[in-house]
Specification:
alpha/beta; TIM Barrel; eight-stranded parallel beta barrel; 8 strands; globular; binds 3-methyl-2-oxobutanoic acid
Length: 274
């Protein structure tokens, strides 16, 4: 029987301002993806700071080849489930493919994720035309997490899932885009598959916390896909991930080890970075 009464109810809730404070205090932020209420309750107890209901659920839950088939209804369903299991961690929900294609659509989509799903923040991929969406949401007090580098919703244009920002012109664009999303009002920035040196430079220059996935130890926090860090995603584990269940005898122990490794900056190690 599932119960959401855990010790974590005693932890202070993580808020958008408290995440900013973590950057000021140089205190690392541990984020993990989650898709259901039972895992959410364990995350809460393990001390995870923020939980992302990622559209990665299309791949790891639904078995799709990409995140593109994920719908807003899927995201609302999983976000609401996670929210029932959580108390302290900040809940971030992905805006799925085409759900923020223009400002009116983005406002309608975000309002479902907050009102029906219980999210406290929404995540959008990219800069350029997405900046107007970030501004519109932020002006309406919807906290936004931006996502740059490898943006999986652009997989066809990018030509695959690979490291971004290795060439000088790409690196310059990523740096400029990072400043632009912060200026547009984003509160958090996920950097995915970006060379460690570039991610550290971005982190040092922008005022909002960066959360890396395959972006090295210089980010303000880290995020992993839950099933990757439990070693149960079928196929080859990405280089940037680590199986935290290996060497631990329970999921709780693996989650706690992840939180400790992020907070103490022992994860990611050089073998997880580009
Ligand atoms: O969908 C997702 O899980 C994500 C993370 C990989 C950052 O966007």
């Amino acid at each position: 029987m599932y119960t959401n009464m855990t010790n974590s109810s005693l932890r202070a809730a993580i808020t958008v301002p408290s995440l900013r404070q973590r950057k000021t205090d140089a205190a690392k932020i541990a984020v993990l993806t989650c898709y259901d209420a039972s895992f959410a309750a364990h995350f809460d107890a393990a001390g995870i700071d923020a939980v992302l209901v990622g559209d990665s659920l299309g791949m790891v839950i639904q078995g799709q080849a990409s995140t593109l088939p994920v719908t807003l209804d899927h995201m609302v369903y999983h976000t609401a489930a996670v929210s029932r299991g959580l108390h302290a961690p900040l809940l971030i929900a992905d805006m799925p493919f085409m759900s923020y294609r223009d400002v009116p659509t983005a406002l309608a989509s975000a309002s479902r994720l907050l009102a029906e799903g219980g999210a406290a923040m929404v995540k959008v991929e990219g800069a350029g035309w997405v900046l107007d969406v970030i501004t519109a949401l932020s002006e309406r007090d919807v906290p936004v997490c931006a996502h740059l580098g490898l943006t999986p919703q652009s997989v066809h244009k990018l030509g695959g899932y690979r490291v971004q920002g290795k060439l000088a012109d790409e690196a310059k664009r990523l740096l400029d885009d990072s400043h632009a999303v912060a200026k547009a009002g984003a509160e958090l920035l996920v950097l995915e598959c970006v060379p460690a040196e570039l991610a550290a430079r971005i982190t040092g220059e922008i005022p909002i916390p960066t959360i890396g996935i395959g972006a090295g130890p210089g980010c303000d926090g880290q995020v992993l896909v839950l099933y990757d860090m439990l070693g149960i995603t079928p196929g080859r584990r990405p280089r940037f991930s680590k199986d935290f269940l290996r060497g631990h005898d329970s999921i709780d122990a693996a989650l706690t080890a992840y939180v400790e490794a992020v907070h103490s900056s022992t994860f990611p190690a050089p073998e997880h970075t580009y």
